[in-house]
Design brief:
Elements: E1 8-12, E2 22-26, E3 32-37, E4 44-46, E5 52-53, E6 59-65, E7 74-77
Antiparallel strand pairs: 1-2, 2-3, 4-6, 5-6, 6-7
C-alpha cells in the first residue's frame, strides 16, 4: 500500500528475526526498512491485503495466528516508532 508519506508498506508472511513475518517500508528510492519483526506473541503470519492506514496516520492489520492461542491478532503501528 502507498501511505500518506509516499512510502510503500507491506507485510511478509514469514521471515524476520523470529520467522513469524514482518511489516516493512520501502521508499520510492528503494530503501527497505523493517518496521516490525513479529514474534508470535504479538502475532504471526500477517495478512498482506489487510494492511491499511487510518485517518490518524497509524497502520492497522491482522495476523493469522499467535503463539499462545492460535487465534490471530489485530495490530496498530505508529509510523516512526520502532
Amino acid at each position: 500500500m502507498v501511505a500518506s508519506n509516499g512510502n510503500f508498506y507491506g507485510t511478509t508472511w514469514l521471515g524476520g528475526t523470529d520467522g513469524d513475518g514482518t511489516i516493512f517500508e520501502i521508499t520510492p528510492a528503494g530503501t527497505l526498512t523493517t518496521v516490525l519483526n513479529l514474534n508470535g506473541i504479538d502475532g504471526a503470519a500477517p495478512f498482506s491485503e489487510g494492511l491499511a492506514q487510518g485517518t490518524d496516520g497509524n497502520f492497522y492489520g491482522t495476523t493469522q495466528v499467535t503463539s499462545n492461542y492460535d487465534c490471530g491478532t489485530i495490530f496498530e503501528i505508529t509510523p516512526g516508532v520502532r
